[in-house]
Amino acid sequence: QLTTECLRYMYRLLFLFYVEARPELGYAPMDSDEYLKGYSVEHLRDLEMIDLKTEESRSGFYIHRSLDRLFSMVFNGYPKHKANGQARGTNGQVQADFDTEGSGGEAGPDRHTFEIEPLRSHLFDPEQTPLLDGVKFRNETLQKVIRLMSLSDPERRSSRERLSYAALGIGQLGAVYEGLLSYSGFFAEKDLYEVKEAGESRDLLDVAYFVSEEELEDYSEEEIVFDGDGRPLRHERGTFLYRLAGREREKSASYYTPKSLTECLVKYSLKELIGEDVSDMEADEILDLTVCEPAMGSGAFLNEAVDQLAEAYLQRKQEETGERISHEKYGREKQKVKMYLADNNVFGVD
């Protein structure tokens, strides 16, 4: 349950990073200074490298309260919308609508500086995270989380760079989704020691192996992971360990399909169905096709099918009408077709 809730918390942040970096999606009100400076996760990213010098700044809950309020605003909308006559806060309790001080309970659109439509999904539903909603994360903990999600790894690049979520495509987000599913968590029921393949260095993003103190004697010094003091790295009983679950992943045969493979397979599968141009199938006939993926996972093949069908439709429609769509408008027109196909023609099962 804790593993599931940790994943859900991570997805919430990923969602917010993405929609705030893509204002053209029309969800996050990034043109509002009040939202940007007072509520946004982008505002919290500005705190990622600030040195928390005092105990008060390290152990405070400013970032936690900020994210808590933001999650609630996404789920309930702002000004707060009601679900079955009620609005729920992050602790699942019924809350009154947001109201402007002195408004006498007559809050209206002119009293608010921005609006957020409620997103009634499991992702932001407070009832889906009962364990995490029962605790508070200190500033130093959430600052580390935001830093790791905002900046590149200094060990993989020469310097730390701000990650651009605007540059992420749907396929990359799918890869992140599948990648996170590769991790599993458990509580150590006794003291555990970490081991590895001989000659390999420890990688927190790689598969981890843990053994008891008695089993540690069966491993050579090259196979044991040591801490900074030169002692075998010990995870005390009760520690929550959250690492890559390689063996379980291999057994389930669950892997994200790379774009190069989805492009190729979808291209030649569709070629048999729609041909190469309008002489094989007219544009409007494409809008009558049905696509089903019986093992969709995160939808890599379905997303690729939607993209290629939308491209084929626009190319053939231009050929039929003799009208060309300008470069400036092409992206938006393609997005319209993709949305239509995704809403009406595409089905997935898993």
Key words describing this protein structure:
9 strands, two-stranded antiparallel ribbon, 42% helix, 13 helices, mainly alpha
Describe what this molecule looks like in 3D.
The protein is mainly α. The chain is globular, with a radius of gyration of 25 Å. The chain has helices spanning about 1-20, 35-40, 40-45, 55-60, 60-75, 140-150, 170-180, 215, 245-250, 260-275, 285, 300-320, 325-345, and strands at about 85-90, 95, 185, 190-195, 210, 235, 240-245, 290-295, 345-350. Helix 10 crosses helix 12. It starts with a helix and ends with a strand. The longest helix has 22 residues, at about 300-320. A 3-stranded antiparallel beta sheet has the order 5-4-6. It has a two-stranded antiparallel ribbon with strand order 1-2. A two-stranded antiparallel ribbon has the order 3-7. A hairpin with a 5-residue loop joins strand 1 (about 85-90) and strand 2. Helices cover about 40% and strands about 10% of the residues.
The average pLDDT is 84
Given the structure, what is the number of helices? 13
Strand order of the largest sheet: 5-4-6
Structural class: mainly alpha
Approximate helicity band = 40-55%
Oligomeric state, counting identical vs distinct chains: single chain
Radius of gyration: 25 Å
- SSE series: HHHHHEEHHEEEHEEHHHEHHE
How many E-type strands? 9
- Termini separation comes to 21 Å
> Stretches where pLDDT falls below 50 for ≥5 residues?
90-110
Beta-strand portion reads 5-15%
* Main sheet record: 3 strands, antiparallel
Q: Given the C-alpha coordinates, what overall shape results?
A: globular
